[in-house]
Write a structure and sequence with these properties.
This protein is mainly beta and about 170 residues long. It has no helices and 11 strands. Strands 2, 3, 4, 6, 9 and 11 form a 6-stranded antiparallel beta sheet that branches. Strands 1-5-10-7-8 form a 5-stranded antiparallel beta sheet, with no helix packed on it. Strand 3 and strand 4 form a beta hairpin. The chain starts with about 30 loop residues before the first strand and ends in an 11-residue tail after the last strand.
Length: about 170
């Protein structure tokens, strides 16, 4: 459903680390906000039931807009994820999550996601080249049917072929 429920203890198969420094504070300078993208200062109810979600404004204004950050990694298999939700007329519109190698050849993976009225965790994984340690995490406007506003929560980038449970950082 759309309500977060404490299901108790979850045992993960291996130790993981969220490499995103400010996983919920998208207004922090760690995050690059390009081409008119801004973060609303009012917190909204997140998937955890607390006032932890953020509203991103401006995705519908131009084709190249994005909220992004670059992280150094030592592993070659990378997974990224983020919680997203649409509101009002943006339900049914699209948002794109991309994880790319920083610099050089544009290699990575991305996914277009159609926003719903419920929080959904979207994720994407890829294997990068051995000669590069920078990974570019990006939430951006897709080429068609873009949402103008998106609610977001809990960005995560980690070594591994699938995402683990969300690990908050600050």
């Amino acid at each position: 459903g759309s309500t977060w429920v404490n299901e108790g203890l979850l045992i993960e198969s291996e130790a993981r680390t969220n490499l995103i420094t400010y996983s919920e504070d998208f207004s922090n300078a760690f995050w690059t906000k390009e081409a008119g993208v801004s973060i609303d200062s009012t917190l909204v109810a997140g998937p955890d039931g607390a006032l932890s979600g953020r509203r991103v404004l401006g995705f519908g204004s131009a084709s190249g807009v994005r909220l992004s950050s670059t992280v150094n990694v030592t592993n070659s298999t990378i997974s990224s994820s983020i919680w997203v939700k649409g509101e009002g007329s943006d339900v049914g519109k699209d948002i794109k999550l991309a994880t790319r190698r920083e610099g050089g050849t544009y290699v990575g993976a991305d996914i277009d996601h159609t926003l719903t009225a419920d929080w959904v965790r979207i994720d994407v994984s890829f294997t990068q080249f051995a000669d590069n340690t920078g990974v570019f995490f990006s939430l951006r406007r897709p080429d068609t049917n873009p949402a103008s506003e998106v609610l977001i929560y809990g960005a995560q980038l980690e070594a591994g072929s699938t995402p683990s449970s969300y690990i908050p950082t600050n």
